[in-house]
Amino acid sequence: MSIEQWQARIIELEERAQLEAGVQFNVASPVERAKVLHEVLRLPVLARTPKTRRPKVDGDTLRKLKEKHPHPVIDLFLERESLAKLVGTYAGPESDLVTAIGPDGRVHPTLKTTRTSTGRLASENPNGQNIPIRSELGRMVRNAFIAPPGRVLLSWDFSQIELKVMAHLSQDPSMIAVFHRKGLAGDLHTMTAARVLNKAPEYVTPDERQAAKSTGFGIIYGITAVGLAENLGWPRDRAQGYIGEYLALYPGVRAYMEEQKRKVSVLGYVETIFGRRRYFPEYLSRDFWVREKMYKEAINMPDQGTAQDVIKIAMAQVNAVLLEQGFTTYYSAGRECDVEWMMQIHDDLLSASQERCWRQVAKVVKGVMEGAAELSVPLVAECKVGARWGELEKVSV
Predict the structure, then answer these.
(1) I want to staple 308 with a disulfide (CB 3.0 to 4.6 A). Which of 50, 119, 221, 260 is the partner?
(2) Cis peptide, bond prior to residue 126, ω within 30 of zero
(3) What are phi and psi of 306, to 5 degrees?
(4) Residues 27, 30, 35, 38, CA torsion sign
(5) SS3 95
């Protein structure tokens, strides 16, 4: 689809929302959306903004409202807002991405190291990290990033690094054992689904594997049964049961979670395996919900934070090793082989190199990344290559 077609889709969603509500209103206005939901449709107000006390109509609030009081208008609002944000940020003629294109035909985001509590780098002006990979519009935006003539894009990421860090932190023997195997037997999501469903791994369907994947990552991020049910389209009791079964399979993970809650309650901080701490002043709070939020973040931070520590260590080591081996780590016309680092997208490193020598680069980077940290499970770095960012294909090196 073209940008014009995406914009037409936004208009279509707005018109359908007006038809469902039975009134004409400005769908782009949060104030008018709130009036339609709570005054016209008589749906309850779940939350209000602290200063103005107006009803909230952000995505999280709408999803909670949909859970309790399903209505077609809510679905239309959610889809319209998601699409409008993508077009406005990345694809429209006045979007952040388009207006940031420099005289050289490139965008040059600023990466900040202290903006996030977990240690992730934050990308600004424009944000190059939030371009979705699974949506059609996201793929179209990524395909606008093209390697220069004679060069290819190389993307690197650590396979399942946050789950591998969780295996190390929790020292759960079953989880560690899976990550030491190869092939299907070494795929944690497939093996989890097989054990929960009591079936052979080769008979696990893609949907069943996705359910295990959503649950595993959800536990790291503190997902609730309500959130998992929404992600998978399940009843809440089924989602709650699956979370329980997952934790029963990996009791070390449950023990780790409880230990992190105890630690933050006593010390007021948690830390990565490299000793980087995050302090939580909220540990003194008597507010139940404040403490619950703190517990979720205290469970997540050592895992996600350690993963980011490993990635940053790998970035520094890769650059040093490439220089030692005679590569140039910036674009250099006429060089035998260079590596141009372009972007860091959470668990991904994006670079470009000459088409004739990208395999040499790939072997060096793979070796350095996989040796960046010693965990209880092996790190695996995967490489993708291609001419367009949205069409990179996995390769073996």
Answers:
(1) 119
(2) yes
(3) -65, -40
(4) positive
(5) coil
Token pair of 178 as six digits = 């899976």
Query: Which tokens in the block code for residue 209?
Result: 């594997």
Q: Name residues whose C-beta falls within 8 Å of residue 338's C-beta, 6 or more positions apart in sequence.
A: 327, 328, 329, 330, 331, 332, 353, 354
How many residues in total does the chain contain?
A: 397
Residue 246's CB: how many other CB atoms inside 10 A?
22
Q: Which domains does the chain have, with CATH numbers?
A: 3-99 (1.20.1060.10), 136-161+309-395 (3.30.70.370), 170-303 (1.10.150.20)
Q: What is the pTM assigned to this prediction?
A: 0.82
What letter does residue 45 receive in the DSSP assignment?
A: P
* Residues 65, 46 contacting (CB under 8 angstroms): yes
- Tell me the C-alpha distance between 323 and 316, whole Å: 11
| Element containing residue 281 per DSSP (H, E) | none
Tell me the C-alpha distance between 147 and 294, whole Å: 43
Collapsing DSSP to helix, strand or coil, 352 comes out as strand
| C-beta of residue 115 within 8 angstroms of C-beta of residue 127 | no
Strand partners, 342: none
pLDDT in tens, 310-360: 999 999 999 899 888 888 766 655 566 788 888 888 778 999 998 988 999
The first and second tokens of residue 386, run together, are: 């291609």
Dist. CA 300–CA 73, nearest whole Å:
34
